[in-house]
What we know:
Blueprint: H1 24-28, E1 45-52, E2 59-60, E3 67-68, E4 80-88, H2 97-102, H3 111-124, H4 130-140, H5 156-165, H6 180-183, E5 196-199, H7 203-210, H8 213-218, E6 220-224, E7 235-238, H9 239-247, E8 251-257
Antiparallel strand pairs: 1-4, 1-8, 2-3, 4-6, 5-8, 6-7
Helix pairs in contact: 3-4, 4-5
Amino acid sequence: MRYRPLGSDPVDSRLGRFVPDDWQHVERYPLTALPAGERPSSAPVVIGINWYSEFDHPEQDKTSGEYFIAKGGAKSLTTIRGGHCVCLEPGGAPDTDAWYAFYNQGNEGACVGFGWSRCMSIFNGDEYTARWLWDAAKKRDEWPETNPGDENGTSVRAGAQVLKALGHVLWNEAYADDDWHKRETYVPEVKQGIKAFRWAKTVEDVHAVLGNTRADQLGAVPILNSWGPNYPHRTYLPDDVLARLIGEEGEIAVPTDR
């Protein structure tokens, strides 16, 4: 399954987000169609974006002490390495060190399952079976090449659709050594999912949903990557870079009810 902007498979197997074949979900269900009073605040956002080589090695800013990627801004971006899905951290309910350690996708293309599961942990305070969601989303997406048990990724839209239709599977230590055959037997709980979701189209919309004062001060959004301890817990993505990624068929998912 080739990543459309590349025209080839990503070299890095962790980059498993695919670009949907159509954009109807974003056009039909924009966040701005909701009255301002009904839009979420201090809530996580899940993004599916092109992943550039400048995102691989975060740099610590000497002034703020925070880690950044692409500090040089949108004009500094060079090579797309594939597609990735991550959760953005809201204000008021910071991601925990335990979740930072728990949500490590390893070398699999399971980023959509991990990004959405991290989002649901922030919402509900529980840990979730991210690889089950990855498998379930591949059943729902539009590509016959993506199936449970393979290494293909999927779209952020497909992950959202699973959470809305089926819910999610709470983590159990017995699942630690599972495979896709075992995951086929897991039973999701609707109450662990979301009832509705929308799509943001601007950086301003994203900041308004996150309600993260630190992000507003820095002019950047905090990503929670799922690459384990070799990548910082939270890393800031400059606003102008996010704007470019949105323009490059970025999926910016906002759960609006859960």
